[in-house]
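Re: [ENG-882] Designed sequences occasionally contain unexpected residues at chain ends

Forwarding the minimal case from QA. Structure tokens:
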């Protein structure tokens, strides 16, 4: 009987843990973070970016973004907007929610290519999404100072070409690089003058046991040649569970350092 009680208790504890992990995976968190750079063009004063990565199978609701309506200048999707089995109609619904915040930029992630990526590409363009596939987009202030959002295609499929993306950019602009895979930081140096990198892909390890996981938990890293944001991401991969790496999105406020 003792063994039966022990097994029963273990099963109950296991079910409780699974329910907790499932609920943690469904959390909706917007982290508001301020980043200051001495090279940021003062004429822009402050730029606010809503960054979301690794949506995968999750659905976005208008209620989720309601607290930041009117607070973001534009939206950046850091790849893995979808994955195999996600309908194009669901992806479109998510885009329609994000469009309420402002202009959307998108870079490809490895799982995005599990869909018919030609259809996905067409749908995004029809909905006004700016696809940064080894290209750059320029913002110019009233005084002529420049801020550029640069995006590279997916590294896992060897479709990234940072050299080509930088050729599309301007030498003396404030540069924000978007890459699904944070390993892009290994492909440039201080010479390229990329101030900030936005990435995801790792899910923060997704399931961390006693603080350990297959990847580091998402964070902002101050590297010698750039600042790197690695997000835990919003969705999950393979199984809809998280532990110790809660889902997150980011409202980044970027300004000059005095």
């Amino acid at each position: 009987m003792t063994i039966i009680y022990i097994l029963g208790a273990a099963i109950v504890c296991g079910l409780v843990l699974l329910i907790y992990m499932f609920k943690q995976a469904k959390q909706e968190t917007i982290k508001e973070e301020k980043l200051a750079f001495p090279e940021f063009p003062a004429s822009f004063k402050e730029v606010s970016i809503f960054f979301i990565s690794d949506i995968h199978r999750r659905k976005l609701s208008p209620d989720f973004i309601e607290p930041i309506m009117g607070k973001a200048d534009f939206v950046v999707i850091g790849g893995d907007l979808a994955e195999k089995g996600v309908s194009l109609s669901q992806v479109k619904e998510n885009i329609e929610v994000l469009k309420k915040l402002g202009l959307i930029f998108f870079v490809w992630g490895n799982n995005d290519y599990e869909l018919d990526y030609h259809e996905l590409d067409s749908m995004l363009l029809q909905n006004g999404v700016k696809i940064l596939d080894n290209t750059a987009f320029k913002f110019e202030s009233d005084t002529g100072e420049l801020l550029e959002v640069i995006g590279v295609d997916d590294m896992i499929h060897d479709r990234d070409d940072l050299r080509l993306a930088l050729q599309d950019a301007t030498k003396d602009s404030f540069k924000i690089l978007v890459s699904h895979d944070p390993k892009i930081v290994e492909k440039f140096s201080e010479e390229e003058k990329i101030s900030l990198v936005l990435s995801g892909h790792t899910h923060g390890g997704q399931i961390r046991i006693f603080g350990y996981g297959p990847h580091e938990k998402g964070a902002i890293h101050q590297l010698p040649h750039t600042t790197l944001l690695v997000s835990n991401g919003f969705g999950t991969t393979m199984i809809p569970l998280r532990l110790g790496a809660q889902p997150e999105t980011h409202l980044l406020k970027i300004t000059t350092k005095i």
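QA comment: On inspection the terminal residues look reasonable. The mean pLDDT is 95. Proposing we downgrade this to a documentation issue.
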